[in-house]
TrEMBL record:
The Histidine kinase domain, residue ranges: 294-513
Designated name of the protein: histidine kinase
Keyword Transmembrane among record annotations: yes
Gene Ontology molecular-function annotations: phosphorelay sensor kinase activity
Provenance organism: Thermophagus xiamenensis
Record-linked Pfam families: HATPase_c, HisKA
Keyword Glycoprotein appears in the UniProt entry: no
Keywords assigned: Kinase, Membrane, Phosphoprotein, Transferase, Transmembrane, Transmembrane helix, Two-component regulatory system
Membrane-spanning segments: 259-278
Reaction(s) catalysed by this chain's protein: ATP + protein L-histidine = ADP + protein N-phospho-L-histidine
SMART domains in UniProt: HATPase_c, HisKA
Length: 523
């Protein structure tokens, strides 16, 4: 490869790779940014879930306070109260502290003999918070607070107005676990569905109170944590069911990187193919220019000879008839050489452009080969060649253009003659292999090195190393013509050769099966 080609390719690679590398880095940074954005959006979504669980809890207690307030205003309607506690099994007792600080047990059994004095001390302890609740109430907001109950239970405190528009305090003693299980859990299940897992954890004991997952234990890390508004020691933990957001982000980054690596690989492969095709084009251009100078030289030499001999003959200087005849013979031979070369070029151009019309017929390779040998016998003998022909018995017919196949065969025999040196022996064999019949031309010339065996079928290609290259004239079109002819017959051509041991060219043609063959399964 020339230095110039190397430079072009290096420039091309840099030109292509530079933007790709920049784009890759940019994409990588972008992916991270996108992941962060997705992460933020996801976290915000989880925060909404936390708020939604809290508002749901607020709704429940709000309903309780509304119903209790109604009962307070119409105490004779005891059904209202009964219905409420029946529907909410987590309610253990309900106490009432009237505006005048008198206490009563609204529902349930008194868990303590000195219940009212205990309620009194609670009222005193949370007097500030209760004042705040009252202010909220007066401004139209029904708020509540939770305080530790008389035993382990939790008390919900809220304000309710009686018929005299006095503000009273309700104490609803609830079994918190039952409240979460009965009231909150169905809501959590419906939010979590199959994607999320939502847990309520008691942070003082780290006990999992409820979870949207059956038989779960607390997770080590949640994607989002939030407190319950009324129960500050209870945390809401949310995570993705089968993976964390970090896992998901990592997976996406890995996928992105894999995709980019694939793109880079494709680009590298593309550059490599481009490299090969540019190299090939440059090689072809070189071969073409060599062909032109070669052919010009080949044409000029016989032309010069022909005109020189004609001039000499015209001058009448040649005295003997033998000499005159010899000159005519040389003129004829050189004209033939010229015609052969021009024909070859035209023939190839027709084949390559697809203008060649084939006259397909049912033929037998043995007969075609025999005819070619009959015509060539004299020429071969003249050149001192010993030609052996080994025709196969009962060769199956093929569909072919006789002239074209004979042409291909002549090209191979011509090459065998041209390139053979000391051992002037050619063996021609026909035979059958799988669904093909073949004809083979074997010589004992210099052979073709493995590396060049594919290239010799390329148009204009000639081996330029070794003494034969300069000694033997040619166009580099013979084997390309053979290849085109075989291709047009849906056949194939193979070359087996080792340097110094000659060449064996084999032309395969598909057998033309008759209906009889097919019905006899005789294939
Ligand atoms: P040409 O013979 O006109 O150069 P071909 O296409 O027939 O072109 O052959 C291409 C090249 O293959 C030749 O230049 C020659 O180097 C090599 N070649 C073809 N046939 C033979 C052979 N029988 N023995 C050795 N080399 C051969």
């Amino acid at each position: 490869m020339t230095k110039k080609l190397q430079k072009i390719l290096a420039g091309m690679t840099v030109l292509l790779l530079f933007p790709v590398v920049i784009a890759t880095i940019y994409e990588y940074v972008k992916i991270n940014e996108n992941e962060e954005l997705i992460s933020t959006v996801y976290k915000e979504q989880l925060e909404t879930i936390v708020s939604s669980i809290n508002s749901y809890t607020l709704d429940i207690s709000d309903t309780w306070s509304t119903r209790l307030e109604l009962w307070l205003k119409y105490p004779t309607d005891s059904n209202r109260l009964k219905k409420m506690v029946a529907e909410n099994q987590s309610i253990k007792e309900i106490y009432l502290a009237k505006a005048n600080k008198t206490y009563s047990l609204v529902y349930g059994r008194s868990p303590h003999p000195d219940l009212f004095s205990k309620l009194d001390s609670i009222l005193n302890k949370y007097s500030k918070e209760i004042e705040q609740l009252k202010t909220y109430y007066q401004n139209g907001y029904r708020k509540l607070i939770s305080v530790p109950g008389l035993d382990d239970e939790t008390l919900l405190l809220f304000i309710a107005e009686d018929r005299d528009e006095k503000l009273n305090v309700f104490f609803v003693n609830i079994d918190l676990l039952a409240f979460f299980r009965n009231q909150v859990s169905p809501r959590i299940q419906s939010i979590a569905q199959e994607h999320f897992r939502i847990d309520l954890v008691d942070t003082t004991t780290n006990i999992l109170l409820i979870s949207s997952e059956p038989n779960a234990s607390p997770m080590e890390q949640y994607d989002q944590k939030g407190s319950m508004w009324f129960f500050p020691t209870i945390k809401i933990g949310i995570g993705l069911k089968n993976q964390s957001i970090a896992d998901m982000a990592n997976r996406r980054i890995r996928e992105g990187l894999r995709l980019m690596a694939l793109v880079l690989l494709v680009i590298f492969i593309g550059i490599w193919f481009l490299f090969l095709s540019v190299k090939r084009e440059i090689e072809l251009a070189r071969i073409k220019s060599e062909f032109i100078s070669n052919v010009s030289h080949e044409i000029r030499t016989p032309l010069a000879l022909i005109s020189m001999y004609i001039e000499t003959l015209e001058m009448g200087r040649i005295k003997t008839i033998e000499k005159v005849n010899e000159y005519y013979r040389i003129i004829g031979k050189e004209t033939q050489r010229l015609t052969g070369m021009v024909n070859k070029i035209l023939n190839f151009s027709r084949l390559e452009s697809g203008r060649q019309k084939f006259d397909f017929d049912t033929c037998n390779l043995n007969i075609i080969t025999q005819k070619v040998l009959d015509t060539y016998q004299f020429h071969l003998k003249n050149k001192g060649f010993d030609v052996k022909y080994f025709p196969a018995d009962r060769l199956k017919p093929i569909r072919c253009d006789r002239e074209a196949i004979a042409d291909a065969l002549i090209n191979l025999i011509d090459n065998a003659i041209k390139y053979s040196r000391d051992i002037k022996k050619i063996e021609i064999t026909t035979g059958t292999r799988k669904n093909y019949t073949f004809v083979e031309v074997k010589d004992h010339g210099p052979g073709i090195p493995k590396k060049k065996q594919k290239l010799v079928f390329d148009k204009f290609y000639r081996i330029t190393t070794g003494h034969l290259a300069h000694e033997v004239k040619g166009t580099g079109l013979g084997l390309a013509i053979v290849n085109e002819i075989v291709k047009a017959h849906k056949g194939k051509v193979t070359l087996t050769s080792k340097p110094g041991e000659g060449c064996t060219f084999r032309l395969y043609f598909p057998i033309l099966f008759t209906d009889k063959d097919l019905s006899n399964n005789n294939i």
